[in-house]
Amino acid sequence: MGKRVAIIASSGGIETAYKVLNIAMAATATDAEVTIFFTFDGLGIIHKNSEQMLSFAPGNEHYEEGFKTANIPPVSQMLAMALESGIKLIACQMTMDVAGLKKEDFIDGVEVGGAVTFLDFAYDADVTVTF
Amino acid sequence: MNSFTVDKIVDCKGLSCPMPIVRTKKAIEEIEAGQVLEVIATDPGSVADMKSWSIRTGHQFLGTTTSEDKVFRHYIRKSDPNEVKPDTKFPHVISNEELSKRLEANPILLDVREPMEYAFGHIPGARLVPLGKLEEEIPQLKSFADQEVLVICRTGQRSDMACHILSEHGFQHVFNVKPGMSEWQGPIETTEVKES
């Protein structure tokens, strides 16, 4: 058993979703233990309605065509694969309180935790990435 | 000697990063140690990724071929977790450095790895005798029984077993080369890779 990778997703948008999930999937495929902490705008990525909520940042719309031709799986599918591979998804409790979100608003499999829950994992992480 | 077997093929054509790696990981779990996985991909990033992935996960990256239409075929041999630790059973051992020195004298050098490993890089002059075929090849090798025979594989484990087999068959001067091809710095020769 190898490395631990801790990822913080604090921005929204489709771009962030893919940055986070691509690194996470590559890490887990390389036998790393991965936890992603979703906070602030990052919570949109794991929302049940993420498909409607996630869009490209203004000026980045041209990516859409490229994503299609490059055969990139939709975010929902990437999340399903992530959970299936054992990646831990943690939603930030504090942001949820501020934004009035409940655990039920997120896709199944998401855990809710505070900063310390994430830090517990991150303290022993070999790699930490922030998006 | 250009033919070899692939035990599983995973088709990642048209898929972008990180999907070829994700599929490779899944597929390698479905084969046995020692078996070879072929990954077909069109993602140019997969060329570097497959190699790094193999090193990270401890599997053996054999090599990549590229076709004219830019389709990459990556070959990975699943490692046995115990294989990385070289064995020390056979008492007569020489180092890679020692082998380098002896090469000038054109010694009898048996490479007991699989044909694909051999094809992607072997020492010039080494004779391919996969460990699994060694017993049946003994009659052809018998004329070397009184000479010095050097045996090499990737990490020294298969060659160790080969040394035992040879010495049981009356070969007098057998030496296991350790660690072997995994750390070989000297000249390398490749042969064309064609599937059977």
UniProtKB/TrEMBL annotation, chain A:
Stored SUPFAM superfamilies: DsrEFH-like
Gene3D superfamilies assigned: DsrEFH-like
Alphabetized InterPro entries for the sequence: DsrE2-like, DsrEFH-like
A Pfam family reported for this protein in Swiss-Prot or TrEMBL: DrsE_2
Coiled coil spans: none
Domain of life: Bacteria
PANTHER family: CONSERVED WITHIN P. AEROPHILUM, PEROXIREDOXIN FAMILY PROTEIN
Name used for this protein in its record: Peroxiredoxin family protein
TrEMBL record, chain B:
Species annotation: Alicyclobacillus tolerans
InterPro entries registered for this protein in UniProt: Rhodanese-like_dom, Rhodanese-like_dom_sf, Thiosulphate_STrfase_CS, TusA-like, TusA-like_sf
Similarity remark: Belongs to the sulfur carrier protein TusA family.
Full protein name: Rhodanese-related sulfurtransferase
Entry-linked CDD domains: RHOD, SirA_YedF_YeeD
Short name of one Pfam family: Rhodanese
Phylogenetic placement of the source organism: Bacteria, Bacillati, Bacillota, Bacilli, Bacillales
Keyword list, A-Z: Transferase
GO molecular function: thiosulfate-cyanide sulfurtransferase activity
